[in-house]
């Protein structure tokens, strides 16, 4: 289930890079590519809570397979459409691909309590969190290799194939085919009535700004260095750092507020115009704290969410990170023409803003409200 989920989620890491490079290959500006990537992330953020609610009322297999088929069709159509020649159509297809992103991550997190004994659930969540960076290590690499050695269209076709293949394997498993347990009646706001969770969601949105804008920073660096490979290498280095941090570094008794500060500080050196190899090396450092940031956020979100809204709370965390990523991509895309040093202000601002939000809301997130 976990392995298939990782394969099915590859498009979420591949698509932003593939869309940026597809627009560039069609002689469109970085701005259009950034808009496509931002629309994909934004609609993905909108779709996850909606699809998650549909899963709660039916079955993961039905919802995920339908969504994967629709997203795959949109990716294949994008491979045939020239973004520069048909910008409106390309934007619409990117929106469909994002909106129909299969809810595999939220679905799997909701399944752990049903799949495993209580004593094994902590280990499962740790493995889940540590393995997530694999998607964001492999995704940009695969997208960049296909774009550079074959074509951006091939990368978009691969997005369709990977999403459908991974989802199909998940859908064949018995837990995905089982109807979700009926939940208790809750307030119409669901988990959003928790003040502490709202603080956490605000910080997660700003984290998404930092992550989404790094893709555009990488493209600006690639333009400056004259090598398209950096468009994939910088996001890959960030994800690789997250993988290393998730597997090897697991500090006890550390607050999320402290982890957020440690994540934010390493973005400052990007303002000093590092060389291409230097930027790749620097990107590993904030990544070392990323997996821990995400793991602690999901654990905290589960604790802050009112009874009966745990799955929806996880879906909202995923959604707001995607929303922030869309905003970061769009904002960075508008200033990328001024060079990577200027573009680097966006991920720094997002990461610092997340740390400030968590520290200002320390009292609210210390207990459910």
Which helices and strands, and how do they pair?
Elements (H helix, E strand, L loop, with lengths): L1 H7 L1 H16 L4 H28 L2 H21 L6 H13 L4 H12 L2 H32 L2 H21 L1 H4 L17 H31 L4 H19 L7 H9 L11 H29 L5 H26 L4 H4 L1 H16 L1 H4 L4
Helix pairs in contact: 1-8, 2-3, 2-7, 2-8, 3-4, 3-5, 3-14, 4-5, 4-8, 6-14, 7-8, 7-11, 7-13, 10-11, 10-13, 10-14, 10-16, 11-13, 12-13, 12-16, 13-14
N- and C-termini, Cα separation: 34 Å
How would you describe the shape?
Answer: globular
Query: What would you say the CATH architecture of the largest domain is?
Result: Up-down Bundle
Broad CATH class of the largest domain:
Mainly Alpha
Question: From the helix content, strand content and strand pairing, which structural class follows?
Answer: mainly alpha
Helix-strand topology string: HHHHHHHHHHHHHHHHH
How many structural domains can be distinguished in the coordinates? 2
Helix content: over 70%
CATH topology of the largest domain: Growth Hormone, Chain: A
What is the count of DSSP helices, taking H or I runs of 4+ residues? Answer: 17
Q: Sheet with the most strands?
A: none
Low-confidence stretches: none
What is the CATH homology-level superfamily of the largest domain?
MFS general substrate transporter like domains
């Amino acid at each position: 289930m976990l392995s298939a989920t990782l394969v099915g989620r590859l498009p979420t890491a591949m698509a932003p890079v593939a869309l940026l490079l597809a627009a560039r290959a069609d002689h469109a500006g970085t701005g259009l590519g950034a808009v496509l990537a931002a629309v994909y992330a934004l609609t993905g953020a909108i779709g996850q809570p909606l699809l998650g609610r549909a899963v709660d009322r039916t079955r993961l297999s039905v919802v995920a397979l339908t969504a994967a088929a629709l997203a795959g069709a949109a990716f294949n159509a994008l491979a045939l459409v020239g973004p520069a020649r048909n910008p409106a159509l390309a934007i619409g297809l990117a929106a469909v691909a994002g909106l129909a992103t299969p809810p595999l991550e939220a679905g799997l997190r909701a399944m752990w309590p049903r799949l495993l004994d209580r004593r094994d659930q902590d280990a499962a969540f740790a493995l889940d969190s540590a393995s997530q960076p694999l998607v964001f290590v492999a995704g940009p690499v695969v997208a960049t290799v296909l774009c550079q050695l074959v074509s951006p269209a091939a990368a978009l076709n691969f997005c369709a194939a990977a999403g459908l293949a991974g989802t199909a394997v998940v859908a064949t498993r018995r837990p995905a085919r089982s109807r979700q347990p009926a939940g208790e009646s809750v307030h119409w706001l669901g988990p959003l009535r928790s003040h502490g969770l709202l603080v956490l969601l605000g910080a997660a949105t700003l984290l998404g700004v930092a992550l989404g804008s790094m893709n555009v920073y990488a493209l600006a660096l690639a333009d400056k260095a004259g090598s398209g490979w950096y468009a994939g290498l910088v996001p890959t280095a960030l994800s690789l750092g997250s993988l290393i941090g998730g597997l090897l570094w697991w500090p006890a008794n550390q607050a999320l507020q402290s982890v957020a500060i440690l994540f934010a500080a390493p973005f400052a050196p990007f303002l000093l115009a590092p060389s291409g190899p230097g930027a790749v090396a620097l990107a590993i450092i904030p990544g070392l704290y990323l997996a821990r940031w995400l793991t602690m956020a999901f654990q905290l979100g589960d604790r802050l969410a009112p009874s009966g809204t745990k799955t929806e709370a996880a879906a909202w965390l995923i959604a707001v990170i995607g929303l922030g990523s869309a905003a970061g991509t769009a904002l960075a895309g508008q200033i990328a023409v001024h060079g990577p040093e200027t573009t680097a202000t966006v991920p720094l601002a997002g990461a610092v803003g997340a740390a400030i939000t968590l520290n200002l809301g320390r009292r609210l997130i210390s207990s459910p409200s």
